[in-house]
Amino acid sequence: MMDYPLLNVFLTMLWFFLWIMWLMLLFRVVVDVFRDDALSGWAKAGWTLTVCVLPFLGVFVYLIARGRGMGERELRQAQDRERAFRAHVQQAAAEGPRTPGAKADELGRLAALHDRGAISDAEYEQAKSKVLTS
């Protein structure tokens, strides 16, 4: 450990931190390029090629040209995901828990549909197994 003084340890940690920060920025730019629906396929290919061929210049130019919208696009996507999650939770809560009586009622309705010929044997078996496993 004598050959590696404290300043060198600090500088190595600093370079490691900067390298990780650079990779995160690079991946964030690439993700933002593909997240943006306003960009055409050619524009996405151009930005991706620019960022891959000239990474420092490409990321710098991208941040200047389109950096303001990055946060807005990320916020909009997060809001869309939250809306979808809330809708799913509300739908699941509205259905309520399935009780054995509810399963029996559903099986009875399936049997009635099957007896009338509204659903085939395969559809009946598939729906019946779905009701029994849920």
Description:
The chain has 5 helices and no strands. With 134 residues, the protein is an all-alpha fold. It has a domain at 98-134. α2 (41-53) crosses α3 and α4 runs antiparallel to α5. The radius of gyration is 28 Å and the shape is elongated.
Task: Briefly characterize the structure.
This protein is mostly helical. The protein has a domain at 98-134. It is built from 5 helices and no strands.
Blueprint of the fold:
Elements: H1 6-35, H2 41-53, H3 55-95, H4 100-116, H5 121-133
Helix pairs in contact: 1-2, 1-3, 2-3, 4-5
Task: Report the end-to-end length measured between terminal Cα atoms.
Answer: 62 Å
List the total number of helices: 5
Mean pLDDT rating: 89
User: Mind telling me the C-alpha Rg?
Assistant: 28 Å
> What order do the helices and strands follow?
HHHHH
Number of DSSP strand runs:
0
Fraction in beta strands: under 5%
Give the proportion of residues in helices: over 70%
Poorly predicted sequence stretches spanning 5 or more consecutive residues = none
Net shape: elongated
Q: How many strands, which pairing sense, and closed or not: the largest β-sheet?
A: none
Q: How does the helix and strand content classify structurally? A: mainly alpha
Name some characteristics of this structure.
single chain; 134 residues; mainly alpha; 5 helices; elongated
